[in-house]
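Chapter summary example: a protein plus iron/sulfur cluster.
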Amino acid sequence: MARGVLIIDRNRCKGCELCISVCPVKILSLDYENANIKGYQPMKILSPEKCIGCCNCAVICPDQVIEIMKGDTNHG
Ligand code: SF4
Ligand code: SF4
């Protein structure tokens, strides 16, 4: 069950992969099939339900692309 929900401002992402490198559950990747308005392949979430809400990705992002909504969704 997801313990955090990511809100990604895709058009601000520069595809630096820092967030991908610090995610403990390895659910982040670049979106190799799409580019944002800057021409970068932005980060995307592969398995949102596995997010543990640790905020590592949001903290390390140099461009404040990621916001995390914390929540306990155990009830469904
Ligand atoms: S909050 Fe933590 S677990 Fe969730 S995507 Fe970011 S780094 Fe991964
Ligand atoms: S750290 Fe930020 S800018 Fe870099 S890939 Fe992740 S979301 Fe994009």
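Key point: The chain has one domain: 4-70.
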